[in-house]
Structure formats: C-alpha cells, structure tokens
Amino acid sequence: MKNLPLGQARALSLLRWTLPRAPRGLALDGPGALTPGACEAIQGAFNRVFAQHRVVGGAVSLVRRGALLATFACGDARLQPRVPVAADTLFRVASVSKTIVAMGAMALVERGLLALDADIGAVLGYPVRNPAFPDVPLTLRQLLTHTSGLRDAPVYNGPGIAGALTLRQMLSPPHAARCFAPVAPGQSFYYSNFASGIVGSLMGAVTGAHFDDALQASLFEPLGITGSFLPQRMQPFSGRLATGYRVSLVSGPSRPPRVAYDAPALAAAPLPPPDPERDFVHAPGRLLISMPDLAKLLRLLGSDGAIDGARVLSPAAMDEMRALQDGRGSVTGRAGRGLGVSYCPRVMGREMVLGHQGVAYGMNSEMWFDPATGDGVAMATNGGLLFATNKLVHSGWAAARLGFEILEKL
Questions:
Q1: 332 lies in which domain range?
Q2: What is the pTM of this model?
C-alpha cells in the first residue's frame, strides 16, 4: 500500500458516516465469544457493506485483544457453478502478501542468511545498481520500505511479469535505466511491486529453493497455516479456492462479473521449478490464504514473534518490522513505514493501525491491527467495485472500518 497523505486520511475519516454502522447491543458470553444474537447482527452488517460495493464474495476475521474472535463469510467464492464463501475459503490477497514476505525475510535475517543493510548483489551474484548512482548499493531494508528507487516501469509490468525476462536482465542495461527512478537508493519512497518481488528472489537465492518453501518452513508449518504463493500447491484444496472477478459499474444480467483470476485452473497447471531469477513475479501479491489463517499472521504482526505456543520470530525482529524506518540503517531519507508494514493513521477509527492493503484483478484485501489494543481485522473479497480515485474507498476499507467499530463496542 502506498503512503497515505495526512489530508487524504482526514478526508477518508469523514466518509465513515456514509458506511453501515456497527449494530447496537453487541455482547460477549462468559468465555468471551460472541452471543448468537451478536453474530447474526454482525453478519448482517458485513452483508450490507459488501452489497453496497457489489462484492461477489468475501470473508472477514476479527481479532480482539490478540485472539481470533470470529470469521464472517459473505457471498460466493465462485459463480459457475455457484460455490458460497465459507470461513476456510482461500483468497488471493494481493499486496497484503508483501507483509508476509517481509516476515519470511526477517526469519532468514535471524538465521544469518540475509542482512538488512548488505548489498543485495552479493546474494544474487551480480551487481545491482541504479545507473545514475553506480556507487550506491541496494539493500534488503530499502526493498522492504520501497526506498530502493526501483519503480514499476512498463518493462516490468509487461515482459517482466510475463516471464520473458529474468531478474538479471531486468536489472542490467538497457532495462535497468527504465526500472529506476532518478533518486539515490535509500532516500525517497517509490512504491514498487518489482522491489518487493526481488525480496522473494533473494530468499530463493540464499535457500536454494523456491521462496515459498522458506515461508512454509518458517511461518506456515509452525503456525498450522494452509497457504502458498503457488496455486499449484493448493491443488489438494482446489474446492476452497475463490475465483477472482471484475465487477462493472453498470452490472446486471447482461453484464455479469467477468472472471479475472481463475485460481482453480491455475492450481491444475504444472508446478514451476525453483528459480530465483523468476521468483520476483510471485512475491509481490500472489499469496492464497483463508481469513482465519491470515488473522494468525495479523496476530503475529502484533506479537513478540510467538503465537499459540509457536515462536517463529524473535521480539527484536518484530520490533524492527514495526519500527518507522526513516533514517534507519541504509534508509537515509523518509520511508514513512516499517519493513513491509504500512502505517495508516486515523482512518479506521483508531489513532494508528499497522498492516497492508491489497488490490488486484478486481479483488481487495486488508490486514490491519491496532498496536494500542491488540484488535485487528483481516478481510478479502474476490471482486467488487473499485474506485481508481482513491484506493482506500473500497469494500475492504469499509469492511475494515466497520470491523474496528464492532470491536470497539465489545
């Protein structure tokens, strides 16, 4: 998610009055679970939010004081044949993936396989430089804060994403000049899927396997999470995969939602071999995961590195991820964020929430937690109305805002 200007944040905070409000009279039973009446009322509120944004299907998990409270499923995971969304439906969560990749990278930093402020060229095996600043190295810290100077040029969004170019080709002449902004590494914020993708390539290079294997070993398996950046690995769970749709502003029987991301079909394709030179296309936004499992990672983000009896990162690593990176290490300018972590002030009804947003192929996902209370919201949709004028004015922002309001009333 791109940094949010303060003026835009203030304008967004006023939009809360146009959204469905949290139901009245919400209550918890003795053990701290929602009462049946509260569950029914909250389900209705999320149904209204998604209907307002013409969402095909979605799910929302609420985290209260560091623990999963409940998950609410709405709409359809697939339209033909119709498959309703369930609590365990697996959604592609787009750029929310960046926070999860950062967690995996920090696990490798703790093992001494990666370093936050070392030259990434030493890992990749060839020099990586902005042609305008040939003496300044690029670092993992810069990649994780979008301060490397890399940008998503047409060469990345075209032949790069299509797999026609290797990472080395993208970072070498003549393509390198197109992929970098005219700023020294570490000084300026340029949101870049390409930069985030390179983190996955670094993980693959130091482990000798697909970066997804590193995430499985360090995060998913210890926490009991079913998820992957490779749809092919989700083939055993193909019945739970949500198809992604594009929804037209003028919709109806003659203009139904169009398939934009066919997860079941991709799951049936051959599994690509491990290749750090091509892993950069997967890491920025291709995680498939259910909302209860995404809520585990949300809880991890707000923890000291251990949840449910499993320690996966040290307290120091978690503190580093969440810390504002301005002027820290090889980031010499303003980043306005943590390591793979966005800061979102005063738009969710809280002073500050940390996490990330994802938008791709008509789908929208959110993962935010309040460090002051331990509350959080993890949600995803598989298609709905998206407004290009403001990436936050989506079903995801509305559902997350509602989720935080609900948690405040409990």
A1: 6-96+210-409
A2: 0.94
